[in-house]
Task: inverse folding
């Protein structure tokens, strides 16, 4: 029951929502004074946090919302608006700079950036969380199909996290080839 | 990438709105 189109939809959707390329300049800026070992440790920790956040919002998000009495259609409208907003920001550069300013301020006060701001609002933000919650709520009632969907979702999450790891690890080299403007173009 | 993200957002809003409208229509007529 392998449906490649469905898997690719999840993968591309999650990758665009997490968008490692948009967090890359901030990661590079914040870790520029750190040694290679510290950078790698921060990166590994951030990847682990993103994995935990994604899995928790995929499996427990629906129950958490149910606890607060929030219905799935309400979440989809709210999540849709947030995702729409982040997509809009991605296409309009001016807003992004304000965001970056705020994050930089927050960064100056902190030593460890792996959870906040790197893992939490930059990589696994509200958009990817509501996407995963909606995905779980759309799960088929058929146990067999639901099992396949879970496997697809987890594989997609793991693949996106691997892409974060490799993109961030080879970021300085990528930056050298593409430059800041090339990176901005890639982000779009 | 921005277009994909906007597409996902709009699709989420539309699909939930269509479900809500359908439910309301069925409630009214049955």
Result:
């Amino acid at each position: 029951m392998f449906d490649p189109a469905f898997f690719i939809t999840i993968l591309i959707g999650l990758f665009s929502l997490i968008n490692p390329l948009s967090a890359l300049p901030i990661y590079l800026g914040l870790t520029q004074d750190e040694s290679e070992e510290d950078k790698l440790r921060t990166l590994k920790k951030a990847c682990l946090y993103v994995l935990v956040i994604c899995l928790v919002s995929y499996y427990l998000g629906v129950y958490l919302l149910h606890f607060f009495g929030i219905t799935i259609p309400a979440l989809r409208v709210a999540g849709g608006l947030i995702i729409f907003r982040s997509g809009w920001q991605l296409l309009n550069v001016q807003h992004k700079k304000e965001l970056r300013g705020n994050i930089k301020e927050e960064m100056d006060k902190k030593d460890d950036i792996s959870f906040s701001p790197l893992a939490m609002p930059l990589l696994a933000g509200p958009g990817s969380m509501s996407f995963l919650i909606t995905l779980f709520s759309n799960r088929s009632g058929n146990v067999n199909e639901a099992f396949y969907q879970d496997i697809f979702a987890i594989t997609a999450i793991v693949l996106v996290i691997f892409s974060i790891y490799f993109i961030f690890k080879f970021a300085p080299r990528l930056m050298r080839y593409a430059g800041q403007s090339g990176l901005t173009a890639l982000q779009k | 990438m921005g277009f994909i993200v906007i597409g996902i957002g709009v699709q989420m809003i539309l699909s939930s709105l269509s479900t809500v409208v359908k439910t309301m229509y069925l409630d009214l007529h049955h």
Helices of chain B lie at 2-29. Chain B touches chain A at residues 1-17, 19-20 (CB under 8 Å). DSSP finds one helix and no strands in chain B.
